[in-house]
């Protein structure tokens, strides 16, 4: 979806209704909530310890939602409780996985609204109890928003592979590198020089 012009109009596939489809059709071939899967063990750079039964350290947790306005590209929580608050108070534009239709901004705690398997109050208590365990080393918590739009409805961030630039900043924060973040009312945000924007035009972090 969105890459139809890269294939020939003569190429035909079967859409999710079982009907013949090519790029001249005025509707998508895939279900709006479609996914695809690939075996994790085929990833050429997967960590050798990815299936370690002892578990592996987690250095960062990223929450993210679709917010066309009002939420920055990335920010870091002050501490664990603040990070849990960020996750619990998330709102996001509805997708095909949600019960809402259209461009509704809905409450979507932890980006998990359609998928909670037990009482949300207990779920929240579980998160808040994590830092009560002796000797625990908790990950930093971040919020990302790839979907902010400008006044003309255009996406302000290019997304896709360019998101690695945000991940690079997050890794620098995990490693506590100096001069990488400014403290604001909502959390820590990248300083003007901390986010690598080399090669990107028309990106204004302000």
TrEMBL record:
One example of a Gene Ontology biological process annotation: response to lipid
Domain Phosphoenolpyruvate carboxykinase C-terminal P-loop: from-to ranges: 1-200
GO cellular component, one term: cytosol
InterPro entries (UniProt xref): PEP_carboxykinase_C, PEP_carboxykinase_GTP, PEP_carboxykinase_GTP_C
Pfam families, per the entry: PEPCK_GTP (PF00821)
GO molecular function: GTP binding; manganese ion binding; phosphoenolpyruvate carboxykinase (GTP) activity
Protein name: Phosphoenolpyruvate carboxykinase C-terminal P-loop domain-containing protein
């Amino acid at each position: 979806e969105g890459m139809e012009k890269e294939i020939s109009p003569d190429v035909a596939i079967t859409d999710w209704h079982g009907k013949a489809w090519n790029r001249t059709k005025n509707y998508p071939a895939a279900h709006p909530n479609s996914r695809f899967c690939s075996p994790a063990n085929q990833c050429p750079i997967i960590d050798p310890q990815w299936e370690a039964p002892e578990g592996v350290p987690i250095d960062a947790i990223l929450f993210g939602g679709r917010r066309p306005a009002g939420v920055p590209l990335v920010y870091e929580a002050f501490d664990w409780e603040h990070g849990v608050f960020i996750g619990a108070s998330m709102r996001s534009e509805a997708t095909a996985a949600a019960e809402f239709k259209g461009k509704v901004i809905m409450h979507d705690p932890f980006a998990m609204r359609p998928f909670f398997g037990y009482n949300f109050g207990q779920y929240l208590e579980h998160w808040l109890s994590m830092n009560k365990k002796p000797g625990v080393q908790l990950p930093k918590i971040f919020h990302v928003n790839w979907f902010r739009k400008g006044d003309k409805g255009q996406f302000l961030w290019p997304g896709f592979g360019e998101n690695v630039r945000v991940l690079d900043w997050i890794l620098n924060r995990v490693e506590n590198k100096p001069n990488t973040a400014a403290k604001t009312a909502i959390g820590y945000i990248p300083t003007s020089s901390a986010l690598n924007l080399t090669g990107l035009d028309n990106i204004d972090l302000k």
